[in-house]
Each structure stands twice: as C-alpha cells, then as structure tokens.
C-alpha cells in the first residue's frame, strides 16, 4: 500500500469556487464517459466467451479505474482527506485471464460499476448545475455591457418576453445576475463536497477492504522484517567469524607459543606477548564496532538526540542537527530512527556530492518525525540501490513511512515518521552544528 498523502486544508474562497467551475465541464464529460464505459462492461460480459469479450472487459476495466482514480483525487482535494485505492492485487506473474478474474471478483470493481451509473446521472446534473449558475450569473451581470457594444437585435430579448429598448432596461437584469452569482457562491462548495462524499461512499476502501489491505501490508512487512533480521544475524556471524574470532584464535596461539618460549627464550616470549596485547586491543575494537552496529551504547545512554549528534560529529561534511523532543522515546523506536538517520547520512556522504547536511528530529501527532536534507546533486530514488529501500522496510516494521524528494540538481530531502509515544519528559529542545 502506498503512503497516504499528507492532509491539507479543505479548499474555500473565491479561488476554490472558480476552480470548481473550471472542473465542472471536464467532470460532466467524464460523467458521459461513464455511460460509455458501463455499456462496454455490459457488452464485454455478454461476449465474455468470445475473444472480443475479454478485450472489451480489459479496456473497460482500465477506463473505469482511470475515471474512478480521477474522482478519488478530486474528492481527496475537496474533502482534504487521503483516499486510498481499494483494489485487490493480482498474484505476481498472473496472466490477463487471471487478472481479469481478480477484477471481476473484486468487490471494489462492482462498486466502481455502481459509481458509473451514479456519476452519469447525479454527477452530471450536479456539475452542470454549478456551471450553469456561474455562467448565468456572469451573463446577466454583464448584460448591459453586451447590449451596449453589440447590434440591438443580438441581445434584445433575454427572456423571450422582455424586450430591451434602452440601457436602463438592460440594467434591470443586473440584480438577476447578482442573484445567480450569490446562489452559485452559496451552493458551489456544498455541491462539490456532497459530490465528493458520494464518490467516497462508492470509491473509497470499505472497512473490510481496508482491513484486508492492512493485513496484506503487515504480512509483507513482517516477512521483510524477518528477512532483514536473518540477514543481520548472518552479518554478525560473519563479522565475528572473520574478525574477533580469528583474532582470538591468533591470540591463543601467540600465548601458547609464548608459554613454551618463556623459559628458554624470554625475548621471543616478550615479543609474542606484545603481539598478543596488540591482538587483544584490535579484537576489543572490532567487538566494540560490532556492538555499536547492533545497538550503539550512546543510544542507550543519551537517547536519540545524543546518538544522532555523535553521528554528526563523525561526519566529514558540516552537519546541522536540530532536535525538538519533549521526552525520551521507546528503545525500539529510538533504534529504528537512529539507524534510518545513519543510513541517510551515509548515503548523503557517499553519493550526493553535498557540501552540507541538515538533520531535523521532532515529535508531533503521536509520531516521531525525522528529516535529512542535503544540498547535493539530487537524483536519488527508492529503487536506486542506495539503501533507502532498506530504510523503508525497517520503518515498515513499525508502521512507519518514508517519502523522498530528490529532483535532478538537488536538493535531496528524506522524510520519515514512526508512530510512538513519549516515555519520559525532557527539559527543552536543542540544536547545534557538528
């Protein structure tokens, strides 16, 4: 499931009403297209066992979902709420017949078909009403001007029974224009919102489909988390085997040789003990690095604030850190946030050619908000193999979200959020530059 778009304010004012007028005719045309699509559905179902029936149904499916998607976007903007796609997904690698079967058995498809009929009738009438009220209001408001600048026979009888012989007669129509414009002003937004709610009632996910999508998302994120944890365990095992374990084996051999040489060659034994001490130091350093990669001690001691500042201090690029957390976060959330920021910071250092990096951390609406921004060359993508997809999988295990803005030429901004509650108070927000 894609991340829902951020909520915005519902449109209002003159600009919003004029936008609704501009959209009225295109939406009315889509309403008539709905009739054509419904007819194609009927013909396709009637000829399903003929070769042309499958082609017609596939075409109708694509057209219907395109029209429904446009109306979801319209309703989302009018109501200022995100509206997700409710459709079931076909199995990977499914052929046209299997995909068509999924569409025909998908409850959301039947609701789309119902929407085609509703949109072709009620939707068409509502859009034409909004457009007509506005055009009529403007027409009668400027009628005296039109009467004055055109030949008399063109605008001489606006109602068929009221003949205009003088400009004063034309001015009588101005209040009618004001009446229509006032009616349009009062009804444009209510009509749009009612139309949008009607669309939502048929095109938005139902509780059942939302639950199925949620279960599918959790199943996918759980599988990805298990895979990630298995890969992390293999990495730890490999690091232990190739690093600290090898050094400890070498240390044991050096100590054994030193024990044998101690009596007959003290100088050689002393040299082996010095090598053993150096190997011990190296093994401890590798173990510390390994532990830091699993869960940094600074994260446990100083929380997300101190751990991220430690990352910034170690960064070769000027890195600004701004933290506004009113309390301590749960340890799993701190760990996920820390490693997400660390990966973003590593990506920026390695790939962005940036001159500076900014990290912002905050908490709002029960979610940890993370932002990493660099002034580099841009062009990053979630499919670019730079670790962002791994961050997305890590956050998905916590029901987190990641969004990326990285136009060519930069800047690149990664926004992440995790649901969490604060566990202990904090004195004040802090900021600084490393």
Secondary-structure element pattern, one letter each: HHHHHHHHHHEEHEEHEEEE
Q: What characterizes the major β-sheet?
A: 6 strands, mixed
Strands side by side in the biggest sheet: 5-6-4-3-1-8
Total helical segments:
12
- Write down how many β-strands occur, each being a DSSP E stretch of 2 or more residues: 8
Span of the ends, CA to CA: 37 Å
Helix content: 55-70%
Structural class: alpha+beta
Low-confidence stretches: 1-8, 425-429
Indicate the proportion of strand residues.
5-15%
> How large is the radius of gyration?
33 Å
What form results from the Cα inertia axes? elongated
Count of folded domains: 3
Mean pLDDT: 76
GO molecular function, one term: kinase activity
Domain Histidine kinase/HSP90-like ATPase: 333-422
EC number: 2.7.13.3
Transmembrane segments: 20-42, 48-68, 116-143, 163-187
Quick overview:
With 434 residues, the chain is an alpha+beta fold.
Description of the molecule:
Keywords: ATP-binding, Kinase, Membrane, Nucleotide-binding, Phosphoprotein, Transferase, Transmembrane, Transmembrane helix, Two-component regulatory system. The chain crosses the membrane at residues 20-42, 48-68, 116-143, 163-187. This is histidine kinase. One of its GO terms (molecular function) is kinase activity. The protein is α+β, with helices and mostly antiparallel strands and 434 residues long. It has three domains: 13-205, no CATH class; 224-294, Single alpha-helices involved in coiled-coils or other helix-helix interfaces, CATH 1.20.5; 301-433, Histidine kinase-like ATPase, C-terminal domain (Heat Shock Protein 90). It is 65% helix and 10% strand. The protein is built from twelve helices and eight strands. The strands form two sheets. It has a six-stranded mixed β-sheet with strand order 5-6-4-3-1-8, covered by helices on one side. A two-stranded antiparallel sheet has the order 2-7.
